């Protein structure tokens, strides 16, 4: 396991008037580093809602650290490393957050971690960042995620194509940590299984016209097009212009493409049967508990990464409670304790039960909305990848990919 670096606990904001004056206790605060604008802005609201639901459950069941309120503060990282650096700096150094849920885009998570969270000794749990670069990040055991990495998704995506008899494909991927990493992992597995990459072409975000790229992709002769991008960004533009060109018979996506905004301005019949992969939830009692809780709160339980966001926030609250204070020091070790067996099982929403067990000195093991979260030495989880297919202009879950 990586060497754990100890750092100073963050300073209490209230000034001490005299040496004899008691310290003023502060409520624990969790930062929400969310990509509310930018190419995944359509996916972000339910993810944030999932995390905020966990905070609500904590506060509705007596609060944290002896009845204090668990606060949350939101910062927009805009799916951009530079924006994320500024947003994370505000959460860490101005808001004095104990921990952070986020970011969502991999580049935003890495930018926020390197610029602010790691120097500030702040634990981050991303519910949506999948790039392999997070696995090897030199993070002092501070950066975790509740979704599997692209090393796993890429394998499952390749397995799915081969199982469907697609042995040749053209690939275009977003030129960032997420896109290039997933494309690389997919390609290695696909070629290992005997598949042929007719052409693999990187593209930049934010362009209005990708027709030249699509011409090169079509010239390869491949009839199936894999688009690794974002539903509210280049992915939508490329898919729309590819449909207009008529050069491809079928379309494939990964998790960033799973969103109904993808179909704006596109004839639904032209993309009927398009399929994609994304992280899902293990089938079990904990996931059913979350379905009921989310539905009651007006949140779609199957929204992309909503369950993983709930787990990230609930785990951080449990770790703070286990750590016994809103201090940052020691939180990483506490997180590993509450997320791992052995221990009494805690399901989503079971805050009061968890607090009682922690107070009694008992071990707990959180089994969450998206499944178990037995973090490995890099802060990664295994997870499960599911297939989605477009039916009637919307993505419908098919089930886990074996």
Tell me about this structure.
- With 402 residues, this protein is of the alpha/beta class.
- The protein folds into two domains: 29-148 and 283-372, Response regulator (Rossmann fold, 3-Layer(aba) Sandwich), CATH 3.40.50.2300; 151-281 and 384-400, Rossmann fold, CATH 3.40.50.
- The chain has helices spanning 44-60, 81-94, 106-117, 150-163, 177-192, 211-219, 234-245, 285-296, 306-323, 331-339, 351-359; strands at residues 29-34, 71-76, 99-102, 123-126, 143-145, 168-174, 196-203, 224-228, 250-253, 275-279, 344-346, 364-368, 371-372, 385-391, 394-400.
- The strands form three sheets. A seven-stranded mixed beta sheet has the order 7-6-8-9-10-14-15, with helices on both faces. The chain has a five-stranded parallel beta sheet with strand order 2-1-3-4-5, sandwiched between helices.
- The protein is elongated.
- It starts with 28 loop residues before the first strand and ends with a strand.
- Residues 1-25 form the signal peptide.
- Belongs to the leucine-binding protein family.
- Residues 29-339 form the Leucine-binding protein domain.
- Keywords: Amino-acid transport, Signal, Transport.
């Amino acid at each position: 396991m990586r060497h754990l670096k100890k750092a100073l606990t963050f300073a209490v904001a209230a000034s001490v008037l005299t040496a004899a004056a008691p310290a003023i206790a502060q409520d624990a605060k969790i930062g929400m580093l969310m990509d509310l604008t930018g190419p995944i802005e359509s996916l972000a609201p339910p993810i944030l809602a999932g995390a905020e639901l966990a905070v609500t459950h904590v506060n509705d069941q007596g609060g944290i650290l002896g009845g204090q309120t668990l606060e949350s503060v939101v910062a927009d990282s805009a799916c951009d490393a530079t924006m994320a650096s500024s947003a994370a700096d505000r959460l860490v150094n101005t808001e004095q957050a104990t921990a952070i849920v986020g970011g969502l885009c991999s580049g935003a998570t890495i930018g926020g971690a390197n610029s602010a969270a790691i120097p500030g000794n702040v634990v981050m749990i991303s519910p949506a960042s999948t790039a392999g670069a997070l696995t090897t990040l030199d993070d002092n055991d501070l950066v975790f995620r509740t979704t599997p990495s692209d090393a796993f998704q890429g394998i499952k995506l390749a397995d799915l194509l081969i199982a469907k008899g697609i042995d040749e494909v053209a690939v275009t991927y977003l030129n960032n940590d997420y896109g290039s990493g997933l494309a690389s992992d997919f390609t290695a597995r696909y070629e290992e299984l005997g598949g042929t990459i007719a052409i693999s072409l990187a593209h930049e975000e934010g362009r209005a016209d990708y027709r030249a790229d699509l011409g090169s992709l079509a010239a390869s002769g491949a009839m199936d097009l894999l688009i690794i991008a974002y539903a509210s960004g280049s992915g939508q533009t490329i898919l729309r212009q590819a449909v207009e060109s008529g050069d491809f018979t079928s379309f494939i996506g990964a998790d960033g493409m799973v969103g109904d905004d993808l179909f704006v301005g596109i004839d639904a019949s032209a993309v009927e049967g398009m399929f994609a992969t994304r992280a899902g939830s293990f089938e079990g009692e904990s996931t059913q508990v979350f379905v009921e809780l989310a539905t009651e709160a007006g949140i779609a339980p199957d929204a992309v990464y909503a369950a993983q966001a709930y787990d990230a926030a609930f785990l951080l609250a449990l770790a703070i409670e286990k750590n016994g204070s809103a201090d940052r020091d020691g939180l990483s070790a506490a997180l590993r304790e509450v997320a791992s067996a052995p221990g009494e099982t805690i399901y989503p929403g079971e805050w009061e039960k968890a607090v009682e067990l922690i107070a009694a000195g008992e071990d707990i093991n959180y089994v969450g909305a998206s499944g178990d979260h037995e973090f490995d030495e890099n802060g990664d989880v295994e997870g499960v990848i599911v297939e989605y297919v477009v039916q009637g202009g919307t993505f419908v879950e098919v089930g886990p990919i074996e």
